[in-house]
Amino acid sequence: MAVSSNELETEIVYPDSDGKPMAESDATRDYLIYGVEALSNYFQNQTDVYVSGNLFIYYKKGSPSAVIAPDVFVVFGVEKKKRMSYKAWEENSQLPQFILEITSKTTQENDEYDKPIKYAQLGVQEYFQYDPTGDYLKSQLKGQTLEEGRYQPLATTRLADGVLSIHSQVLGLDLRLYEGELRFYDPQTQKKLLSPQEIEQARQEAEQARQEAEQARQKAEQAQRDAIPRLKEMGLTVEQIATALNLPVEEVRAYF
After folding, report:
1. Phi-psi bin for 108: left (phi > 0), alpha (psi -120 to 50), beta?
2. Could you tell me which residue ranges the Putative restriction endonuclease domain spans (predicted)?
3. What is the sign of the dihedral through the CA atoms of 165, 131, 80 and 48?
4. Which pLDDT band holds residue 24 (cuts at 50, 70, 90)?
C-alpha cells in the first residue's frame, strides 16, 4: 500500500524541548532573561517583531536535527505570538536577524567556532557574544555582522565615561558594558532598556516621590492656614491675608 507524502510528513516530530533540565549559571540565566524581556518590551508595539530565547528554531522542514536554540534572538517580519518552537517554513522562511549568546565555560568553544559558521550559513545578520564573568572571551562583549557570507567584527566605541559600546544596526540599539554589566541602550534617547523588575522598581520610586511631594504640598497648605489667625491678630484684612498667603479670599474669610 502506497503512503502519501503528507502521511510521511505527519510522522515527523519536532520536539519543543530536549527533555533535559535547563542548567545555567545565575549570570547566564539573568542576562538571558534580561535580553528577552528588555527587547520584548522595546518592540512591544510592533506586531511583526518576535523576540524570544532558548527556544528551538527548526530551519529545515523534514529534518528535526536541523535545529538551533540561541540564548536571545529577534525575528523581524513575523507575527508576534507565543510559540512552543519556531519552524521557519511556517514563518515565511524568516530566521533571526539578531542573535545574542551568553558565553560560559561549557559553551565557549561552540559559541566561538561552531555557531558563527552555522549562523552565517543561515543568514543571521548580526551575531553578538557576551561573557558575564569576563573569563572566556578576549573581549567581554563583541558583535559581528554578516558581509558576503562571512562575519566581520562590528566597531566598538569607548564613550566619554570609558564605557564600551557596540551599535546594532539590526536593532537600532547600542549594547553597552557598565562595569561588566550588559545593557541595551536607545542611542536616540540615551536611555537604558529596563527589565520588568527595573521598570517596577522605577514605578515604585516614582510613586513614592509623588506621595512625598503630595505630603509636602499638604503640609505647606496647612502651614498657610495656620498663619491666618496670627495675621488676623496683627490687624490684616481678609484681602491682605489672602494676598500674602496666596489663598482664595473665601477660604480666608472662613476664619473671620
Report:
1. alpha
2. 37-171
3. positive
4. low
Domain limits for position 214: 201-253
Instruction: Please tell me the total count of domains within the chain.
Output: 2
Residues 37 and 92 in one domain: yes
Other CB atoms closer than 10 Å to residue 67's CB: what's the count?
17
Question: Which residues, 6 or more positions from 139, have their beta carbon under 8 angstroms from its beta carbon?
Answer: 156
Pair (23, 147) in one structural domain? yes
Q: Are 185 and 210 within one domain?
A: no
The cell numbers describing 127, all together, are 551575531
In this structure, are residues 178 and 133 in contact, taking their beta carbons and an 8 Å threshold?
no
Query: What is the model's pLDDT at position 252?
Result: 78
Tell which phi-psi region holds residue 44, choosing left (phi > 0), alpha (psi between -120 and 50) or beta. alpha
Model confidence at 2: pLDDT above 70: no
112 and 213 share a domain?
A: no
Tens-digit pLDDT profile for residues 103-147: 988 888 898 999 999 999 999 999 999 999 888 888 899 999 999
The identity of residue 54, as a single letter, is N
